[in-house]
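Priority: medium. Attachment 1 of 2:
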């Protein structure tokens, strides 16, 4: 099913389209599992991280000309968060021999959910992280994303939450996985 998608690395001029996709995904795909107050609080910590684009580790996925998903990986310590959530920023580089890569900022256009978009982006990200020498990956999942990542082999490391400015608690799950080497 994923063969109909094309991908490329994100560029700075993609930021408006990426931001629109992220807003739509947060608002619509979280609606079944979070309250409106929790969704509002989610926007405080989710969104574009320009460092991923600058590091050339962030992918855009297209169905024809339409942007249907985005996501990537990082060799930096930051586990999650957008440019506006500076409190979570940790730009130090990770050691691939001893630390897991970060799977970051994965979003699917709601009209393309459950059609292989997330799986394709995750596969691209894991392969790139493996290619950079990483043997494991970690991520911070939302409640809506946890089943997807669990099906992809990620296991719960810890459960946590973000308390929004509005007082709402947004449940988050730190998850990890060993990255298997591709067959030769």
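Attachment 2 of 2:
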């Amino acid at each position: 099913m994923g063969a109909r998608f094309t991908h490329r690395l994100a560029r700075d001029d993609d930021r408006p389209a990426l931001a629109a996709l992220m807003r739509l995904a947060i608002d619509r795909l979280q609606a079944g599992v979070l309250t409106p107050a929790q969704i509002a609080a989610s926007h405080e910590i989710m969104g574009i991280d320009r460092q991923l684009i600058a590091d050339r580790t962030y992918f855009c996925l297209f169905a024809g000309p339409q942007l249907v998903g985005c996501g990537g990986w990082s060799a930096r310590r930051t586990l999650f968060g957008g440019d506006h959530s500076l409190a979570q920023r940790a730009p130090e580089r990770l050691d691939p021999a001893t630390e897991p890569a970060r799977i970051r900022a994965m979003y699917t256009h709601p009209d393309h959910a459950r059609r292989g978009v997330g799986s394709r982006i995750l596969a691209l990200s894991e392969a790139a992280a493996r290619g950079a020498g990483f043997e494991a990956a970690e991520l911070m999942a939302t409640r809506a994303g946890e089943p997807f990542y669990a099906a992809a082999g990620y296991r719960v490391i810890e459960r946590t939450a973000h308390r929004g400015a509005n007082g709402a608690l947004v449940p988050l799950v730190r998850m990890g996985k060993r990255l298997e080497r591709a067959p030769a």
